Amino acid sequence: MTLLDGKKTSNDLKEEIKASVDLRKTTGKKTPHLAAVLVGTDGASMTYVNSKVKACEYVGFSSTLLDMPADTSEATLLEKIEGLNNDPDIDGYIVQLPLPKHIDEQKVLMAVNPDKDVDGFHPTNVGRMTLDMPCFLPATPYGILELLERYKVETAGKHVVIIGRSHIVGRPMSILMSQKRPAGNATVTVAHSRTSNLKELCLQADIIVAALGIPEFLTGDMVKDGVTIIDVGITRVEDTSKKRGYRLAGDVDFKSVSPKAAFITPVPGGVGPMTIAMLLKNTLLACERRD
Fold first, then answer.
1. Which residues are part of the catalytic machinery?
2. Which of 42, 209, 230, 232 is the most exposed place for a label (fewest CB within 10 A)?
3. pTM (predicted TM-score)
């Protein structure tokens, strides 16, 4: 069993990005600049955005955090987004989700300039991805592809079962893995809450991407020997034996599944760190496109 170590791989990626940024600076080119918009005080969102800011500092990016109160109006947020769209120094930016309930997320995401949409959520980028055209890939699926490529996991002709059909992970992952690319050329099945024969499908799968948000849902009796497991989920589960009062659990029951797996991502330290690394990679790409 080989651990697909997202922490190590993301650190390797950050070193590569840092070297590119250093070279840009020595040749007088623009320093990449990533901005993040955070509305409200959601704990997980704040932690995630702070991680992004630290990562920017490490690789030598400029970074801006627009920290807005939870009662910010939709109109005010849209004004800020228009400002970022028109700021020539900002190469890419992200609007941290979820947004407060009184704000229409779809309207906000549509307002982002697709050329600065380093999260890869704008319909223009999603459409270009679907047509296999140059675009910003969504950071989490992009990170999964990078892990599969760097660990030389064979995907061509393999049966991939993706559990979950979200626009952020499941749906784009199904498109990308069916395309002609190094971590692609697979036969893909998308499973979800209405799938009636999920266990049967999982037992046929060579690769399973679990992205449904239910802790330890995928168990050892649902997978075959030699399977590759990508665990996208991360949930705080109450655990009084831990100092913090909780532990982090993925969508996969690691204890029962890992003995059968050829490759598996841990939680934490698997897909999560890759998401931030690919966001940096998209921002560098945005800057290079504007050279």
1. 52, 96, 119
2. 42
3. 0.95
